[in-house]
Write a structure and sequence with these properties.
Order of helices and strands: HH
Structural class: mainly alpha
Number of strands: 0
Shape: elongated
Length: 69
């Protein structure tokens, strides 16, 4: 078993950091698209609740559908 060195910690943090950054960018793009389509184009009054639920719904679908495929 390897001991915990600074190289291992930095490698792990870089991998986790890139995943978090990619997830954050995906959520920002999803929220922006929903706001533009629902809020500006369709003038939907339920824009905010849909925007708040959309990332959770996408995450649940990814966690359920991806393992099945």
């Amino acid at each position: 078993m390897q001991s915990l060195t600074s190289d291992i910690v930095l490698t792990s943090l870089s991998q986790v950091g890139s995943t978090i950054l990619l997830t954050l960018l995906g959520v920002i793009v999803l929220e922006a698209l929903l706001y533009l389509v629902l809020g500006r184009v369709l003038k939907n009054r339920y824009t905010l609740p849909i925007m708040l639920l959309a990332p959770a719904a996408v995450g649940l679908v990814a966690l359920v559908v991806y393992p099945i495929i």
